Amino acid sequence: STLRAPHGCHAQYMANMGSNASLAMAVIINGNDEESSSMRQLMKLWGLVVCHHTSPRCIPFPLRYACEFLMQAFGLQLNMELQLAAQLKEKHIMRTQTLLCDMLLRDAPTGIITQSPSIVDLVKCDGAALYYQGKYCTLGVTPTEGQIKDIVEWLLAYHGDSTGLTTDSLADAGYPGAASLGDAVCGMAAAYITSKDFLFWFRSHTAKEIKWGGAKHHPEDKDDGHRMHPRSSFKAFLEVVKSRSVPWENAEMDAIHSLQLILRESFRDAEADNSKAMVNARIRDLGLQGMDELSSVAREMVRLIETATAPIFAVDSSGLINGWNAKIAELTGLSVEEAMGKSLVHDLVYKEIADVVDKLLTHALRGEEDKNVEIKLRTFGSQQQKKAVFVVVNACSSRDYTNNIVGVCFVGQDITGQKVVMDKFIHIQGDYKAIVHSPNPLIPPIFASDENTSCSEWNTAMEKLTGWARGDTIGKMLVGEIFGSCCRLKGPDALTKFMIVMHSAIGGQDTDKFPFSFFDKNGKFVQALLTASKRVNMDGRIIGAFCFLQIASPELQQTLEIQRQQEKKCFARMKELAYVCHEMKNPLSGIRFTNMLLESTDLSDDQRQFLETNGSCEKQILKIIKDIDLERIEDGCLELDTTEFLLGNVINAVVSQVMIMLRERDLQLIHEIPEEIKTMSLFGDQVRLQQVLAEFLLDIVQHAPSPKGWVEIQIKPSLKQISDGIEVVHLQFRMVCPGEGLPPELVQDMFHANRWITQEGLGLSMCRKILKLMGGEVQYIRESERSYFLIFIEFPNSNQREKNVK
């Protein structure tokens, strides 16, 4: 705000310095992404830049705007520096973890305290301690042995169920002896190694981290109790942070947790062997020097690989794999057993980086450990679809007990996701430039704006259309400066309408084919149609507008009019179809009611069969009416109604639908189907099966030679045993007619999903897709003297299903 009264304390600062004017500018940086609950990144205040002047000053808006921009640029630069510092800190922690792990493999656990580097180098602290088997090892500022035993008893009593405790104030955490520790120990991070062994890090009072700058305190100076003065404000801050240390960061907690896991595994092995030192001593006493060397190297490789959470692998002096942890196995799809003994250079990395890896190995075997080297690994087995795994590795020379280099260990970080995204971005960016800035006349004039309607894109077609080069327009305001000054519009109304279109697009409301006219650089009047749509970033936030121009030629206007007429005609047909489907439901309801009345009367067996066939056909019509949205079938979203039914009922309904056409064309129907097939009970969608079979049979009847021709239906069932003793019935339907049968173009319509010419072709195509959704398939076979549909489908055996349920 430009009108804000300063705090009384700040006014006192200014009076002390002889300042009459001040300008405060905030330095904003990115906050912690993990704490952000919204799509927008959390921002936080890092600090202030305050300018003072000895005389009253009024800063004009342009200068304040420039200062704001300067602070934004400084904030971006500062944020990059902070990110770089965080990355360097993570690398330092990873390096220290590796060294500590190496130390644990060779010496007693107390070596992480007594030797350098120690656990103090892992995270920033004022002191650290190891409480191991009742012994207390310290480093730096720590509590006494009696105090640490009291802390251990408190942890076991109140935090025994957790794996550790982290706090920046022991007093706030509820530790009763916090007052006795004073300001020397305020913050603590404790990690449980076993139920009796602990690791501790300690931090002192945070006030000693504050560097106070200002006038020295004079004993005779007294603060006014009613006003906050600089000295009293600092005292108030000290009261707030009293008995509190610097908070523990997430990266430090991750490092502590990783070391905790390493120590747990080490202590577990130590307990099993009754101490590593004792075992090594016994081995040396026995004089088994060769065995000592072999077990030392083996334990080093195995523990380093098993305890690491990052991808880690190791090679011997010949470049052959002798260590391969679970993470790298997961990334590459190559198991430990398969990886052992393979050549890293010749078998596991791509040829284009083989020289880089070979050089990396050569340096490491000489003791020169290269850092942050990107390698490209092959994938195997289930991970082959990834094509490649990109890992950034640090090389660490592996040494034996005589300090000779015997191999190389690689500690890596998987960057495959980042690499794939970056490659896609580069490809998309290249394609975007190639398309948008192509001189091809098919590319329309394109321009874009940011959130403030400043021009951010101006392609080659726009340069040709307006006469203004890209360099003359980028960064200028589209409303008023480019269109209005450079390219004149017809009156202020046109400028206002253009401004509304741009701001609507930036607000998320797209505009299509808006009439837009202007004068180019040479004064030529240009008429076009403007399409404006929003631009969004990866987070979905609107960052501007994207605009296309279409030159409104007579041919284009005529094409648009034809398109509108076709859309109108299509909409009219859709209304007619919707009307027909709606009105058909009423008489179908009457037919259903009539069938219900007939079922309650005395009917013969034949009459009851005719009634069932009639009901099946009525259900089929209702299903087809509900399928007016063919996209559900195209997308595979059709719902199937699974019920128990008799195969004979389906056959009767299918045959009834072709009988009239058979008589009209004087064709004979051959369908000698045994009674055991007709009485077969299945479990599935009866109506859909009936619809599919009826469509295929009807097309066979339509194209069978007549008169005196014939059509044959054959059904071959077979039982198939699947898992858990469940049986399914495999059905094969064959619908045969003599001669050539269906025309070739009709068969093409059936098997090509996106093209059909006739109504019969559309029906065959939809029924084929329905059959596929039911788990079946269809073939059309043309032989020398006959043609036929061959349909395969499986249904659960209803009788077997009832037995399983029982």
Could you give a short description of this structure?
With about 800 residues, the chain is of the alpha+beta class. The protein is built from 27 helices and 24 strands.
Structure in words:
With 806 residues, the protein is of the alpha+beta class. The chain folds into five domains: 8-85, 2-Layer Sandwich (Beta-Lactamase), CATH 3.30.450.40; 91-210 and 243-287, PHY domain (Beta-Lactamase, 2-Layer Sandwich); 310-421, PAS domain (Beta-Lactamase); 437-552, Beta-Lactamase (2-Layer Sandwich), CATH 3.30.450; 635-805, Histidine kinase-like ATPase, C-terminal domain (Heat Shock Protein 90). The protein is 45% helix and 22% strand. The strands form six sheets. Strands 4-3-7-6-5 form a five-stranded antiparallel beta sheet, sandwiched between helices. A hairpin with a 5-residue loop joins β6 (187-192) and β7. α19 (605-626) crosses α21. The longest helix has 46 residues, at 61-106. The radius of gyration is 41 Å and the shape is extended. 24% of the residues are buried. Residues 34-40, 208-219 and 275-279 have low confidence and may be disordered.
Percentage of helical residues? 40-55%
Shape: extended
Summed up, the domain count is: 5
CATH architecture of the largest domain: 2-Layer Sandwich
Q: What's the CATH first level of the largest domain?
A: Alpha Beta
Salient structural properties:
Phytochrome, Beta-Lactamase, 5 domains, 806 residues, five-stranded antiparallel β-sheet, extended, alpha+beta, PAS, sensory transduction
